[in-house]
Amino acid sequence: MWRGLYTAAIGMMSEMKRTDVISNNLANANTNGYKKDITVHGEFESMLIRRAYDSRDDDALVNWDVTRFRQFTVEDDRDPAIGRLGMGDYIDEIARDESQGALETTGNQLDVAIIGNGYFAIQTDRGVRYTRDGAFFRNFQGVLQNVRGQNVLNTQGQPITIPPGTSNIAFDEAGGVYADNQLISQLQLVEFDDWRALHKEGDNLLVAQDGANPQPATGTVQQGVLEKSNTQIVSEMVELIANQRQYEANSKAVTTQDEMLEKSVNEVGNPT
Fold first, then answer.
1. Which of 6, 28, 90, 162 could be joined to 34 by an S-S link, Cβ 3.0–4.6 Å?
2. Which three-class secondary structure state does DSSP give residue 221?
3. Are strands 215-216 and 205-208 parallel, antiparallel or unpaired?
């Protein structure tokens, strides 16, 4: 009885975490370059349940001792198995969906999107961070920055400065930056062997873990478009509804177990 109570409670905790992940995906449905998260559930090791003292050998039932009992329940496997009892699930990890988001044409010459694998490198106060958001701007000094005023880096790890008086800015597929048809810099585009090498840090930025090895990206750059979030609102809403139903089912199981415990304590064995 206690085991069922704990199993249902653990299920509720898992669904609460899953609700947080889905809510965050919905909140970022309009965030450029956002990659949605997916909760990966794991299951605690199940337990094989048998009927104790239910051997097919009647003599063994009459003359059993600890040693003999262990012998015919484990080695001889004579007690009938009831089945396996699940011990509940847990959130094994929160994975990131790296699938390509939809492309939206903006016509802005400073808007760029990565088609395929790759990330832009951004300089922040905390160090270099990475993003798929290619909505860039030129500040009053001509430095290429993101929407938060952080510098976009080139392949040398330096800010990209657009010369004064430049009227036409272009990007080629390899990330080359042109000012009035003159190559002035190259966007730093990197990718990683494993998506786990990058963790979300907030502000639509990702941070590389210790030991991560950035490599030149295999993706290409397209100018005048932005990559939108790969979150599908309808799918996430369906997931949220299913999540709430599972939470309610676990909640009902906890209530039922609690009522059974109360009845056992107050009524079972009570002399009349």
1. 28
2. strand
3. unpaired
State the DSSP code for 197. G
Lookup: tokens for 146: 């993101």
Contact 107, 226 (CB under 8 A): no
Q: Are 12 and 89 in contact (CB under 8 A)?
A: no
**217: exposed, middle or buried (Cβ count in 10 Å: 0-12, 13-18, 19+):** buried
- Beta-bridge mates of residue 205: 202
Distant-in-sequence, close-in-space partners of 152: CB < 8 Å, separation ≥ 6: 120, 121, 122, 123, 136, 144, 145, 146, 159, 160, 187
8 Å CB contact between 184 and 166: no
* Three-class SS state of 76: coil
Rounded to 5 degrees, φ, ψ at 207 are -115, 140
In this structure, which amino acid lies at residue 44? Answer: F
Q: Is the pLDDT of residue 86 over 80?
A: no
Please write the tens of the pLDDT for every residue from 181-212: 999 999 999 999 888 899 999 999 999 998 89
Say how many residues make up the chain: 272
Q: How far is CA 234 from CA 22, 29, 35, 112, 230, in A?
A: 12, 11, 16, 27, 12
